Structures are given as C-alpha cells and as structure tokens.
C-alpha cells in the first residue's frame, strides 16, 4: 500500500471502529470481519473477497502501533489543509511563507520532526525523494499479506509444548515460474513508463507528487509472456503443511508469529507473516492460573479432622501431600515445581484446593457414631451471632 492510500482510505471505517478504539477492539473487529468475508467461506463471491482484502489492509496498518500512529498523523496533517495553495500560488500553511527544504530537512538545518523521524521519511512514497531535489525511490514488488489461522491444543500439550503439522489452504509461490510471474524461459522486463522505479512523478505547483506506476502496478517490471499457471501474479492458491512448534506454557488466546510464512508477495515480493491464534481445550481435572496449575480434591470429614496423607495426580505423575489435622474446607496445599515450566527452566506450582465433602446419607452406625462425636465436641464459637439474634427475639 502507498502513502496515497493512507490519505484517501479510512481504515477505521473499514474495520467499523472509532478512531479512539483500543488495540483489543481493533483486533476483535478485524477477526470478526475477516471470518465473515474470508474467500473460503464465500466461494465465488468477488465482493466478499474485496471486503476481505480491505479489512486485511486496514488491520495491517491499525494493528501495528507505529504504523497506526504515523497513519493518524498523516491523515490529520493532510486533512487540516496544511498543504493547500493560497491565492498567490505559493504553498503556505496558515498564510505564512515557508521553504519546502525546511519541511523535509534541507538547507538551514531546519527539520520538521514527525514520530521521531523527518517528514521526508514519512512521505517518501508521496513526495519525490523524501527531500528537496532527491530522486524517487524504487518501490519493488509488494509484500504479501499476513495470514491468520487458529489451532486448538489439548491442555497437556499447551503446558508441555508440542510440534504439530498445520495444513493451510492459502496463496503460495507458483512453482512453475518461481514467483516472478513470467512464462518459463522468459523473464520480466523493465517497465518502459517508470524505467524500473515503480513510481511516476507529476508536478503540481511547488510540489512533486509520486504515485505507483499504473503500467506495472508499482513493481518496476512487466511480464510480457505470463506464466500459464499463475497468469502473471507469481502466486497460486494451494494446500501446504507446516510443522509449527508451540512452546511450553503457551496460553489460551496467545498469538504466535511465523515470519515469512504468510502469503507470498506479488511477482517475487517478500512474503507476509503467518499468525497462529492458540485455543487451549479445558482439562477435566486441571486448571491454570499464570504458571501455576490448579486442582480441586475432595476429602472426607474424618480426613479433615484427623489429617491424612493425600496422593494426587500431576500432569507427569503423582505427588503425596500432607493434610494436617483440623484442615478446613477450601485450604490450598502447594506442590512446588509441578506447574508450567517457564522459559528460564523454572516451573510454577500445583495448587491443590481441599473440598470437605458432607455425605448426603448415613448408615445407622455412622449416624450413632456422629451423634456421639457431636456430644463430645465443644460447640462452635457463635456467641457474637447469638447476641445479635437475641436482640430480635
């Protein structure tokens, strides 16, 4: 995408969010719209494909904090009319004369700073050369789009780490032309319009504006004899399988980035990235809090009163925990080092919550024994409650 796209296109509207939307709101909206308009879910629907391209382009900018900041600043600058011409024919912000070389860091040492860099860096794809008197930079083949997919992992695999094959049906490099779009035995030739620069320049008063060359779509070369397989694009939709390593301790909702494994760039351009969203299936026994695993274990009333040695499972075996006499329901015991292994090799803990079970039915013998126990047991300390109750009697 060019800087001209940044000025003309409203990426917030494309994603259906406000300009003040948080990163999470932008991500949530993008994922929803991408699922709804994905070509795999709308086969043969060119409008859905265009919507998918639009939301992907918008998220590529708004999903990156640095690009989003520069996009907002550029839109604000151009939207304010800072570069409109006045009646005298000179480009003047606010009616005051200015030197274009000052704006782009030219003579005199004056450089307008914008997001940590000169305006010439930011507008390099709009204004010729990024500064006064410079030459247009070649664009080259466009980078491929990023690809997102989702993988569900079993709870033990997420804790321990696992390598899984991931099958994707997405655009890939054409094997017939190896991505350059030309018929085997031929090569792309330099564009006669932009002479390989990928951009064309037009003068408008005090400014020189550059835009992608329409003859070669900004690539700098044209394909005279197109590849019969990809029809000159350099990419084809195909099924591919990748072995993806999910590190130990990967969490539900985490996103893993595989650089260069997304869609290939058009006609040999660099590939985008593949983002894998992780969903962890719940386990029937264990839960997770950060790097600690959690487990609830029921115990009897007698075990809580008298104490016991309790043998409980872990993900890799068993461990014995000591339940001290007089343990109340809800007490948490800790098995150190039996949780999620961190990157530094240390591990979280297994937190065992004890749940004292009250039997719904008792045998006659058990009831008699419990009544004898109750007679010998001092009453619960409820004096402060009884005093309040007597006030209402």
TrEMBL record:
Protein name stated in the entry: Chaperone protein DnaJ
NCBIfam families: DnaJ_bact, PRK10767.1
A Pfam family assignment: DnaJ
Domain text: The J domain is necessary and sufficient to stimulate DnaK ATPase activity. Zinc center 1 plays an important role in the autonomous, DnaK-independent chaperone activity of DnaJ. Zinc center 2 is essential for interaction with DnaK and for DnaJ activity.
Zn finger spans (CR-type): 161-239
GO cellular component terms, A-Z: cytoplasm
Matching HAMAP family: DnaJ
Cofactor comment: Binds 2 Zn(2+) ions per monomer.
SMART domains: DnaJ
Major location category of this protein: cytoplasm
Source organism: Micromonospora chaiyaphumensis
Cofactor: Zn(2+)
Domain of life: Bacteria
Signal peptide: none
Gene Ontology molecular function, alphabetical: ATP binding; heat shock protein binding; unfolded protein binding; zinc ion binding
Quaternary structure and partners: Homodimer.
Chain residues that bind Zn(2+) 1: 174, 177, 227, 230
CXXCXGXG motif repeats by residue range: 174-181, 191-198, 213-220, 227-234
Keywords recorded for this protein, A-Z: Chaperone, Cytoplasm, DNA replication, Metal-binding, Repeat, Stress response, Zinc, Zinc-finger
């Amino acid at each position: 995408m060019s800087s001209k796209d940044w000025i003309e296109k409203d990426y917030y509207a494309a994603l259906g969010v406000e300009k003040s939307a948080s990163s999470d709101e932008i991500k949530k909206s993008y994922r929803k719209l991408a699922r709804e308009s994905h070509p795999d879910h709308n086969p043969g629907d060119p409008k859905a494909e265009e919507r998918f391209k639009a939301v992907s382009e918008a998220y590529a900018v708004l999903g990156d904090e640095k690009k989003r900041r520069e996009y907002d600043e550029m839109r604000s600058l151009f939207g304010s009319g800072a570069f409109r011409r006045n009646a005298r024919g000179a480009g003047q912000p606010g009616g005051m004369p200015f030197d274009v070389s000052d704006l782009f860091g030219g003579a005199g040492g004056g450089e307008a700073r914008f997001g940590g860099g000169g305006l010439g860096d930011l507008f390099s794809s709009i204004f010729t050369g990024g500064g006064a008197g410079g030459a247009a930079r070649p664009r080259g083949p466009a980078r491929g789009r990023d690809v997102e997919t989702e993988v569900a992992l079993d709870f033990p695999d997420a804790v321990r780490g696992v390598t899984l094959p991931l099958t994707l049906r997405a655009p890939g490099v054409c094997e017939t032309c190896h991505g350059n779009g030309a018929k085997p035995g031929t090569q792309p030739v330099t564009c006669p319009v932009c002479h390989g620069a990928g951009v064309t320049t037009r003068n408008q008063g005090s400014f020189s504006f550059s835009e992608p060359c329409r003859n070669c779509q900004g690539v700098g070369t044209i394909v005279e004899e197109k590849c019969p397989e990809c029809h000159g694009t350099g990419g084809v939709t195909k099924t591919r399988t990748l072995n993806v390593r999910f590190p130990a301790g990967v969490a539900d909702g985490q996103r893993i980035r595989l650089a260069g494994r997304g869609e290939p760039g058009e006609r040999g351009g660099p590939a985008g990235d593949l983002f894998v969203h992780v969903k962890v299936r719940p386990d029937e026994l264990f839960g997770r809090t950060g790097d600690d695993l959690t487990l609830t274990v029921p115990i009897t009333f007698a075990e809580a009163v008298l104490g016991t040695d309790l043998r409980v499972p872990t993900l890799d075996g068993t461990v014995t925990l000591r339940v001290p006499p007089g343990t109340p329901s809800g007490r948490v015991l800790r098995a150190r080092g039996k949780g999620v292994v961190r990157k530094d090799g240390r591990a979280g803990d297994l937190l065992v919550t004890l749940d004292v079970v009250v039997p719904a039915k008792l045998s006659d013998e058990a009831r008699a024994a419990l009544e004898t126990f109750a007679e010998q047991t001092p009453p619960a300390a409820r004096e402060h409650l009884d005093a309040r109750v007597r006030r209402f009697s």
